[in-house]
Every structure is written in C-alpha cells, then in structure tokens.
Amino acid sequence: MTESPARARRHSLHLLVVGVAFIALLAAPVFANAAVGSVTEFSNGITANSAPQSIAAGPDGNLWFTESAANKIGRITPTGVVTEFVNGLSAGAKPWGITSGPDGNLWFTERGTSKIGRITPQGVITEFATITPNAAPWGITAGSDGNLWFTENGVNSVGRITTAGVQLAEIPLCVGCADNSTGGQGIVAGPDGNVWVVGNISNAVYQLPIGGTTPAVFTAGITAGAGLAGITVGSDNNLWFTEQAGNRVGRITVAGAATEFGIALGAQTPTGIASGADGALWVGENGTGNNGNNLVRVTTAGAMTQYQNGIVANAGVYGVTAGPDGNLWFAESNSNRIGRMLSGVVPVNVTPPGISGTPNVGSTLTVSYGAWKYLPTTYAYKWFRCTTAAATKCSTIVNKTKSTYVVTSADTGSFLRASVTPTNLNGAAKPTPSPTATQVPSSAFSITKPRITYKTKSVVLTSTIITNWAGKAVQTATSKSGSKVTRRCIITKRIPVAGVATIVCTLQRASRQTLRKQSLKLTITTTFTATGGAAKSKTQVLTVPKRVKP
Q1: pTM of structure
Q2: Please, what are the domains in the chain?
Q3: How confident is the model over 34-82, as pLDDT tens digits?
Q4: Residue 216 phi/psi, 5° resolution?
C-alpha cells in the first residue's frame, strides 16, 4: 500500500529530503537587480498525487527528483519539461533520497523495498538490495572515496555501495541500540573528506571517517528534541543542518562545535537544506497549513530571509537543491509540483570569449561565447578598436553588436577586441572582454626622398621605405606637361617582412633624352599595401637637374 505524505510525516516528525548537491563556487557571482525569491511552479508531466520528495542536480544539466507515492523517478529540464521513469523499479519501492553519483548516474534510495537504485541520464534503472533487510534507506550522498553512502533509518546504520553495485560493510551509528533509535536521515560528504549524518531521533550529528567504522558523535550545543533532518555543506566549509521540531537551522564545524539559529516564525518545520550558488543556505519549510510553502535564505552568519513569492499554499516544500542555472529548485510533496526560485545569481564567466578569423580588411571576425556558469539564455556583444595590444586605450565601434564583425580600412593598425554580456533569468552579467586583442595589418610607412644617381646609360632614383608589416610597395614617377601626364618609371617591390627595404626606379631612355635639354620635375607616388591591410600612398615632388651626359 502506498504511504500518504501525511502518514509519512507522522512516521518520523517530517521527512528528510536528501541528495542536495553542493555546488562549489568557481568565481564570486556578480549580482544584478533580479527578482530574488520569484517562483515558477511546474506540474505538467508529473503524475497526480505522486508526492515529489528529494531533488538533485544531475550530471546531464537537468534536475532529478523522486516520486515516492507514484513509485517513479522524475527528470525536469531547466525550462520545466518533465519526464518520468518507472521501468526497472520494484513495486512499492517508495524512492526517497537522490544524489548525483561519481559515475555520471543518479543514485537513489528505496525506502519501501530496502534497495538502492541507479538511474542513468537516459532513464535506465538498476536496483541493488541492501545487506540488511528492512534497512529503510533514506538519505544518500557521494563520498570522497568514490562510493555512495546512505542512511539506513530502520537499523541505525550507514550503508555503502560501489558504483558497480557492490554493497560494502555497514557502519553502525549506535552499537547495541534498538532499531530506529537514531533515526539517521540526512547525509552529506563533508569538507574534511568524511561523511556526516544527522539523527532525527538521537538528536546528534555523526562524523564517519571514510576508512573507519566508529563515528564521532556530537550533541553539545544542539537543543534536546530538535528533530534533525537535512544536512549540507556551506560555502564557509561548515556543516549546516535543519531542526524540524526545534524550528531552527544549525551550523557545526568539522571540529564539532554547534551553533543554532532560530526561525522567527513558529512551526515552520525546516527540512531540506542546500547550499546555493549565492553562497547562502536555502531551507525548505514543510509545516502544516501555509507554513509548508516557504523557502528561507540563511547567510553563513545566520541572518534569515523568508520567501514565499508564488509558492502555492500548503505546498509541503521538501527537497531543495541548487540548479545548473544558479537558482533554487525544490520539490512540493503536498501540491505535486517542482518549483524554481530565482536566487539573483547572474552568469559567471569560466572561460573568457575568444576571437577567431584573420584580421584583414574585408574579412570577418567572430567572437565566441566563452564558457559560463548558470545557464545564460541570451548574449549581447560589443566591438572595440584599441590603440594598444594590451587594450588599455579602446573606443567602442558604434552599432556593431553582433557576434561577427567585418574589418574595415578604419581598423588599419588598430587592435580589435570584443566583449560578451550574457543574461539569464536573474539578469545580465558584467561584460567580459576577450583577453587579447587582434591587430589589423597596418599599411603605415615612411619613405625617404629619392636619391638621384647618374650612370652611363641610365638615371636611377633610389628610395628607402620603412614598414611595420610585410606587404607590397609600388612606386611610380610621372611628369606633367600641360594636361599630359607621362610615366617615367614604375617599380613593384615585395616586402617579405616588416623593416627597411630599398626601392630603385630607373628612368627610361626618353627621360634621359629630356634631361639633356632641361630639368625634369617628377611626382613620385609610393603606395604600400600591408598583407591583409588597406593601401596607403605618399607623394613627393622631385626635380631631376638637366644633365647632358649621359
């Protein structure tokens, strides 16, 4: 017979949601003016009266949750599309806790059949029986040893299973105690490499060494009858836990020093707890009536803010986890929904954007997104023209707001850079520029005044050109008489590397004959085109004196 949510709560105060995934912050988030606390609820695709319990972020970028009453495992995308999986689950399994495993699968507990389940991101389910019958496995977490650790609520023990499905020796929380005298529920891998468990009945926090069998037990500083339920790791590297009956949130150091923080409103029944991408702790409240539709944000200093915006009355908020989008996702056991609450965390850059393409005039450059945490949904772009390679002096290129940019002659010699600004449901991140700028070839050059050399059968004009880029130089010498222009010489010079090159332009026979009668006024035009750049020209006026010989 399927146990109702109400009966499950009576069974042991209120039930724990486990499998909350702690997300380590790779970089400090940048916050925008987001509507922190705004909620969207999703019900389409969830079986009626399925009583969603635990929820965890999966390795596939989706959220996975247990449906105890419907005997199913659910998957919901960050956009709210739900898929349910049942094939492979035993009848009466009552899936409860769920967590992401080190093998890329999801692992869950079956409270009704005393089994541990594994589900692949594609939905293939495999079950493994626990060592002890009627163990009633509850919470589950991935340990630092690469195994899955789970609480056995029915027999005062903690079980372990490898990713291959091999059950390892159980570790008793209390030797010689009556069954269910500890009420182990929440479990999490601690920042010290050990596994931490809370006892709902024993009112204790347990520290289990990965390689040992005897846990350390901490009760000092915890109010009697508090009814410990959920536990997670905070951004301060302490353990944080909920007290269902005590209406408090607790913090305990790895050395065992506990501090309690009371919730201002009474009878909130805090249960699920998760560390958010914003660095705070988020707690689900599942008390009766309208007390069961809240999330509480708790800073690592213990300051609390309660949020209810958009959660249906008497939702029965149980499991809470930080999603890949940086928001809080939670299971509503009573109202049969999965909820999403905005955290205010905007995208955070992991890998800066990069520019691809050849920076030649007329070619197209493309800026990549880079890599971002917290699921950007849109991107905005800006392009900049800089005078230095370090991009210390830059100006915005007006109206260029696409991911691509066509290089123009105005960019010659400049360093081009682009920035990307992503936006998610919480708002826009700080613009992140490409770490390096790419220079457009420069056709700037200097040219000396041609030196005139008279030879036996020729007159030679020799110039020195200095460039900052490889390319091609063309020099012509012309004279003008009235409206008639006569080309006197032309030379094309390939310049393989930047630097100094010599250009020699030899006057033709007709020019030499003219020089026997009079001087020759020439216009010397030098044009340099950098490889991939735009052409630039310089003009000089040169008078070649009359010379009878040659």
Answers
A1: 0.83
A2: 5-341 (2.130.10.10), 348-439 (2.60.40.2700), 445-544 (2.60.40.10)
A3: 589 999 999 999 999 999 999 999 999 999 999 999 999 999 999 999 9
A4: -85, 140
